[in-house]
Design a protein that fits this description.
This protein has one domain (51-372): ABC transporter involved in vitamin B12 uptake, BtuC, CATH 1.10.3470. Helix content is 65%, strand content 2%. The chain is built from 14 helices and 2 strands, in the order αααααααββααααααα. The chain has helices at residues 46-51, 56-72, 79-104, 112-129, 134-159, 163-186, 200-207, 220-238, 240-250, 252-257, 262-288, 299-309, 321-340, 348-372; strands at residues 210-213, 216-219. It has a two-stranded antiparallel ribbon. A hairpin with a 2-residue loop joins β1 and β2 (216-219). α2 packs across α14, α4 packs antiparallel against α5 and α5 packs antiparallel against α11 (262-288). The longest helix is centred in the C-terminal third of the chain and has 27 residues, at 262-288.
Length: 374
């Protein structure tokens, strides 16, 4: 069997498949001959092709949840309510999408929640202490956040330790640094206001403004979210890097044997997570002006849960960016739907846990059915 990873390896997945191997234009197998298995998806019935989409279970769950809250909560379908749902979903989805790519690549990142806060703290404190234009702080924050992502990827590839251990250590270190440095520099557990500093208004327009589309007021984070979904989907389905991501998630040794740059791919994935954390951190800062140093703890589990609900496997090699986006949308609908239905919000975490379990079981069942139709 001959497998290639040359420049021509830029095609998408076999239709309906969420996992690829490093070879062939479609990334699912070496280049087939005419009439072979790889040419059959175009002739398969639509239901069979849909079954092979990793995000199918999440889409079904999202539709069911939307219909459910539409029926029991009169205010759920209001334009303002849907805008709120999309905003909450976007704050999760911006991080869930790169986390999904990382999981497809076979790794985790438990530092994502506090990394968002670290990004906001660096931007705020640098701008305030240096009395600099806020865009200088934003730029420094980008460099620092990318350095954290690089550290995670570099330590993973050099030490061969599990990503759980590496990123758990980063999580603990960042949690301590966020609190310790904020108290040391600001004298309190929160940053000082920078709303009167030069560049604040323009930075807020980029990271925390709202736009009106069709009469609906949408936070700009929704546009950032959709942009990240589009870019991540293009990378996974149309680039050689997408082949590499699926390959390292499916098996590191096999991927390395056919020439996939495993270390570079994993470091790149962690840099992608860090970039999204920077975007979320700047939104956190410019939306609220000040940042609490203890924020973000626990959010990493929500990002992972959204990716899993969206069809990503914990074992890697399978999933999609669209699925992670739908998973984030499910979180948004559940969170705000409970409020609009006037339920006791104390039950929210229980609801999310049950939803995560059911979605995982549904995804597993759909995947088994898809494999049975091959």
């Amino acid at each position: 069997m001959t497998v290639t990873t040359g420049p021509g390896n830029t095609g998408g997945t076999e239709e309906g498949s969420g996992a690829r191997q490093p070879g062939g234009p479609s990334g699912t197998a070496p280049a087939p001959s005419a009439g072979s298995e790889a040419e059959r998806p175009a002739h398969r019935p639509l239901p069979v092709r849909l079954l092979r989409r990793p995000e199918l279970g999440a889409v079904v769950g999202a539709v069911a949840l939307f219909v459910f809250f539409s029926l029991i909560a009169d205010s759920f379908l209001r334009t303002s309510s849907l805008s709120t749902v999309l905003y909450f979903s976007s704050t999760i989805g911006i991080m869930a999408v790169p986390v999904a790519l990382l999981m497809i690549g076979g790794e985790f990142d438990l530092s994502t929640g506090v990394m968002v806060t670290s990004s906001a703290l660096v931007s705020s404190m640098f701008s305030y202490q240096m009395t600099a234009n806020t865009w200088v702080g934003v730029g420094v924050s980008l460099l620092v956040t990318l350095a954290i992502g690089f550290f995670n990827g570099f330590m993973l590839t050099r030490t061969k330790l599990p990503s759980f251990i590496i990123t758990l250590a980063t999580f603990l270190m960042l949690t301590g640094l966020n609190l310790g440095l904020t108290k040391l520099i600001s004298g309190t557990v929160a940053t000082k206001s920078i709303s009167d500093m030069e560049g604040f208004d323009s930075a807020r327009a980029v990271f925390a403004s709202s736009v009106t589309i069709g009469g609906a007021h949408l936070q700009i984070t929704v546009l950032w979210w959709l942009l990240l979904v589009a870019v991540a989907t293009w990378i996974l389905l149309r680039t050689r890097a997408g082949n590499w991501i699926f390959a390292v998630g499916g098996g590191v040794d096999a991927a390395r044997a056919v020439g996939v740059p495993v270390a570079r791919t994993k470091i790149g994935l962690y840099l992608g997570v860090a970039f999204a954390a920077w975007i979320s951190g700047q939104h956190l800062l410019f939306n609220y002006d000040t940042v609490q140093s203890s924020e973000g703890v626990g959010n990493e589990l929500i990002y992972i849960a959204a990716a899993v609900i969206g069809g990503c496997l914990l074992t890697g090699g399978y999933g999609s960016a669209i699925g992670a986006a739908v998973g984030a949308l499910i979180f948004g609908m559940a969170n705000k739907g409970i409020v609009y239905a006037q339920w006791n919000p104390d039950w929210f975490k229980f609801f999310l846990g049950a939803m995560l379990l059911l979605a995982t079981l549904l995804n597993a069942w759909i995947r088994k059915r898809a494999e049975a139709t091959r």
